[in-house]
Design goal:
Blueprint lengths: L5 E5 L6 H15 L7 E5 L1 H11 L6 H15 L2 H4 L1 E2 L2 H6 L5 E2 L1 H10 L2 H7 L6 E8 L4 E5 L8 H11 L9 E3 L2 E5 L8 H6 L4 E5 L16 H40 L4 H13 L1 H4 L5 E2 L18 H18 L7
Parallel strand pairs: 1-2, 1-9, 2-5, 9-10
Antiparallel strand pairs: 3-4, 5-6, 5-8, 7-8
């Protein structure tokens, strides 16, 4: 396990998850010998990657096998391997979505081995969580293999729910409840990592900093839906990151104030009383956020289009971006 609680947090983004796989490939091949993530979490496509990233912390051959499976999933699959498009007859019967997710469900069952799930439940494994949205009560759900009643089947369904984009992909049913994409509530799930005591967070965004402009006239319903999701995702992601940064600043301010009043026990006691009153803001450990792990340009306008040649290029871009940003071990 890592000596510091370094967390990996991965945003949603469909096929753009290949970029995150490239980042992980660099971190694994360069720094695995120095430690590994103590926490991994993700939403949507990040929820498909985060458990595999946690498995990369296992002794070989499991660690290397998990990386190989990730690379295979994000460089060889095509859209029909993930989604099954409904024909007009099926759409007359099922009005909720354009695609069925049966192929993705089958892929997850094939790739996510039972022994791997059992290892993630062990104390020596990284804390791993995925986020999906319960549409019955509107709340985000954060689940982990270590949850007391968690089974492999239930966890795979949570991963599937997190990757199910509303309207475009059918809902996942968990305990008879309609569940969809975690990105609706929590695109870049910092909160889970902060609650688990992360001292350093390495977030991977799958979109560039600058929101892309377009000259499209939006005469196509599918393109309108994609653009709407793109705008919502951008807003949610920015809000998630800003909240994490504010918490980070609060923690740093607390540390500085404690150091400044170490020689005055009375003042220090009053400060600690104030910090206890505002525990949700000040009650975490010092956090460092490694910024910049995101594409320089838009990777694709349709994140539900899986094209192996394009995704291979995005893996390369992710690897090179990590090489440029991460110049020393995130774990040492």
């Amino acid at each position: 396990m890592a000596t510091k609680k370094t967390a990996l947090v991965i945003s949603g983004g469909g096929s753009k998850g290949a970029f995150a796989v490239g980042v992980l490939k660099y971190v694994f091949t360069t720094y695995r010998h120095t430690g590994w993530f103590a926490i991994t979490g993700g939403t949507s496509t990040g929820a498909l990657i985060a458990p595999m990233a946690a498995l990369m912390g296992a002794p070989d051959p499991t660690g290397s096998d998990a990386l190989d499976v990730l690379i295979e999933m994000y460089t060889t699959v095509e859209t029909p391997d993930i989604l099954d498009k409904r024909n007009w007859v099926e759409l007359l019967v099922h009005h909720d979505a354009l695609y069925e997710s049966t192929p993705l469900n089958e892929l997850l069952h094939e790739k996510f081995r039972p022994a791997w799930f059992e290892w993630l439940k062990q104390p020596e494994a990284p804390d791993c969580y995925v986020v999906y949205t319960n549409y019955q009560n509107g709340q985000k759900m954060i689940v982990s293999p270590r949850d007391p009643t968690m089974t492999r089947e239930r966890f795979l369904m949570a991963m599937l729910a997190s990757a199910s984009v509303p309207v475009i992909v059918e809902a996942a049913q968990i305990d008879g409840l309609v569940c969809y994409d975690g990105g609706v509530r929590d695109l870049l799930p910092f909160g889970g990592a902060i609650e688990l005591g992360a001292t350093k967070i390495l977030p991977i965004f799958l979109d560039p900093e600058k929101f892309p402009e377009t000259s499209d006239s939006f005469k196509n319903v599918y393109k309108i839906m994609l653009r709407t999701i793109e705008i919502l995702v951008d807003e949610t992601g920015r809000n998630d990151f800003e909240v994490a940064q504010l918490i980070n600043l609060a923690i740093q301010a607390k540390e500085r104030m404690i150091r400044a009043f170490e020689g005055d026990p009375g003042a220090l006691a009053k400060l600690n009383q104030i910090f206890q009153e505002f525990e949700p803001l000040f009650g975490k450990r010092l956090i460092e956020i490694i910024s910049g792990l995101r594409p320089d340009n838009v990777l694709t306008e349709d994140a539900l289009e899986f094209v192996p040649e394009k995704m291979k290029e995005w893996v390369r871009l992710g690897f090179e971006k990590a090489q440029a940003i991460i110049d020393h071990s995130p774990f040492a």
